[in-house]
């Protein structure tokens, strides 16, 4: 007789996000929220500034999320979350997790001052940046998270972005936070695990989530998870954690990284690049990968 194979379920079955949201087809940001809430659970309040998710959750008074939402100004995700946390503490609620959920524009750029302030105070919040590498909600404008070589409406093909992507992890690591992590929607088990871990830690926790955007990246909706996986497999977006500001851990050791060209060719925003320009991007990825390996003691 053949033995019955038991399937181990590593992702919670509970859903805190309904299918009635307003995201585009293949939206990485919507998948990111679904996985994040599976890790945090229902005792969560989320602060959402101006970003794609201010639209995705649905028109007032309706919402696709089964948790309370506080919509706030573009630059105030972190400070609003800090205020919600203070209010909960005043009424004796120490169980509810406060989540600040912002895009790269509201994190790398407009909201950086509030984020830095919360981090310096070590306010007890989970801050998540779902990174789609541009101001997508307002029409695909360049942000400081936009990678070198990319097309946006404000960096058109003849004047594509020449500057490197801002090192937001390096900035947050300099604050000495108790927990920092990167996560990708293509690795759901890893992502849920990190949000669960963050839920149990006190102080400011920062999670940087890679969330492809078909509309802004000029990619096929069905390639969203493939792109998110390639970003990790090429070393463009490594999965790692930093604990207590100093202990680095690489979560996925990629033995043979794929060439960055495999990742770039699936996106229209890089279609204008020539071979020598792709080579320069590869060199950038290689240098950052080696730096992360060194920080992780590998």
With strands numbered from the N-terminus, the spatial order across the biggest sheet is 2-1-3-4-6-5-7-8
Residue runs with pLDDT of under 50 for 5 or more positions: none
> Structural class, from helix and strand content?
alpha/beta
In percent terms, what proportion of residues is strand? 5-15%
Total of domains: 1
Q: State the share of residues found in helices, binned by percent.
A: 25-40%
The description of the largest β-sheet is: 8 strands, mixed
Distance between the termini: 46 Å
Shape: globular
The CATH topology corresponds to Rossmann fold
| Annotated CATH homologous superfamily | Thiamin diphosphate (ThDP)-binding fold, Pyr/PP domains
Q: Helical region count?
A: 11
What is the typical, i.e. mean, pLDDT?
95
**How many β-strand stretches?**
8
By CATH reckoning, the class would read Alpha Beta
Q: Give me the Rg, rounded.
A: 19 Å
Please explain how this structure is put together:
The chain is of the alpha/beta class and 298 residues long. It has one domain (28-295): 3-Layer(aba) Sandwich (Rossmann fold). 35% of the residues lie in helices and 14% in strands. The protein has eleven helices and eight strands. An eight-stranded mixed sheet has the order 2-1-3-4-6-5-7-8, sandwiched between helices. α2 links the parallel β1 (44-48) and β2 (69-71). α1 crosses α7 (188-199) and α3 (77-90) runs parallel beside α5 (112-121). It is globular. The termini are far apart. The mean pLDDT is 95.
